Amino acid sequence: MNLLSDLKADYSPSTWMTDLSYFLAPLKLHLLSLPSTHNSGMDKKAVSGIEEGWTACQNDTFLFQLLQGARVLDVRLKHGIEGIFFSHNGALSKRSLNGLINDCNNFFRQDYATRKNEIVILNFHDLDSFTESDYLEVFLQLINGFTGTNGTVKILPRAARDLTLAEIQSNYPGCNIIISAYQFGVHPECWNNIPHYKIGKEAPSMNELDAFIDKHTIELFKPDMWSLQVTNTSATYGPLNL
To answer: What pTM value is reported for the model?
Structure first.
């Protein structure tokens, strides 16, 4: 059987992991290429008056990003006057941690039967000037926000990291959220931090970026999840649209 030729083309970006579950079932998460959004909470609708890419890196909400197929959200937070908000290069977004939790729950609540095999990874990349009590506050918001009650989904525990997708679906039904972070210490709910590979220069050429991507993806096996820069940048604008 040729798995690539047997891969059906009629899948939706909003439900691709569920639509292709027959194909993905024997694989572990770290063997998948999961679309991710950089600075997920810094979208043009949430950063007033600023659209430059060095500040606003997305076009629309968390829910929009999930509906377009993104399955890893890059979480960078900072304390604002009225709560915990997303941040980039010192600028605060209107998007809050609570808003992220609500959008993730709403994504699954819309039609869980068609999205039951989707997995969303919240990759905590930067928590600017946070204290230990701040980390606890964030962690408790996540625990309280993903409880599996009133239409919410649950957190997939770290114990599932070595399971195939079929085993995850069988052993942890209703668990669709992964918290990837080192900031919260060792908890059963938290997975290992995801290392990120960047090219190391702000505005590489497309040829340089292609060579960088090839260098990392040519490896046949890595034992855990990792992320890779695949978007080019402009020195004047920042990350460019894919």
So the answer is: 0.92
